[in-house]
Amino acid sequence: MRNVLITGGAGFIGANFVRYLLQAEPGVQVINLDMLTYAGSRENLMDLPNPGNHQFVQGNICDRSLVERLFEVFQIDTVVHFAAESHVDRSIIDPEPFIETNVRGTFVLLEAARKAWLSRAGLANSQSEQAVRFHHVSTDEVFGMLEPGDPPFSEISPYAPNSPYAATKAASDHLVRVYGHTYGLPYTITNCSNNYGPYQFPEKLIPLMISTALEGRPLPMYGDGQQVRDWLFVEDHCQAIWTVLHKGDPGNTYTVGGGNQLPNLEVVRTLCEILDECRPESPYLPHEQLITFVADRPGHDRRYAMDSTYIDRELGWKPEHTLASGLLKTVEWYLEHPEWVDTIRRGVDYQGWLAMNYGERGGI
What we know:
Order of helices and strands: EHEEHEHHEEEHEEHEEHEEHEHHHH
Number of strands: 14
Strand content: 15-25%
CATH class of one domain: Alpha Beta
Helix content: 40-55%
Shape: globular
Low-confidence stretches: none
Strand order of the largest sheet: 3-2-1-4-7-8-12
CATH topology of one domain: Rossmann fold
Distance between the termini: 45 Å
Structural class: alpha/beta
């Protein structure tokens, strides 16, 4: 890796990866392309390590001329593709942005990479297959839903998406593989479980519950709260991607999970216990009393779980954080950065979104 294009690098996972990469690879030049939609912010890129090796470009991955120009000007040899619309609830209300960004945006990036890296005879400019890489970051939701006794998802699980978001990510996965098979584009894919940690936009479950509990408002719990997710601390995810970039074989897919498969209700109760300990002066103790059950969302998948055996065996990666240690670090980060939360929430119609998504369900 010399010149790395990171798409969506001002979003939650992307910004964490930018930090990780600048620290792990001091000689790498990072070109960070982000449209700065509601979930992306320059606030996520403050105080970067080695800031001289980071260049931010505000733009849309669907802008073909811009993307091709970045490949040419910066001689991009590695793409790490995070940019995506990613919130299931939003995809149910308005699927179109998910089609545009997740499908067309991925296509534009693949075409730019093909044009820059490949010729009719194969890899151009004397580049070896190991000299360039298109890494696509995907999700466990492309595999659909697990029943209680089903084994976890793995690299050979069939695709069965159940939401507009999951369907568009499945489509983008297929596009990446097609460009590898048809054109010889060197690629890798990671399908990850639910991420959590610093800089996550506060509409997602864990940061939503933290900020809402601190304000003493109801904590909306979909259905019976028994939906099971595999929780992956974002720093562990960043390390997994970095490991795949260095050690992963082109054309391979790796499923990445945190090994923490708990019902949402138990996760929220654990968060409330941590908040009780960190904020003993809060007038809302115990915070668990704020949990409010609301109507479930349409098509809500009951269980996800990931099998990370392959990436552990082949590349030596496994998560370092337990859910308890990761949640504690996450809560501490949000408590130490209230100004970040305030800035992010002021930048969009956050309260309007909460009212639209949860109001009719009897929540916030």
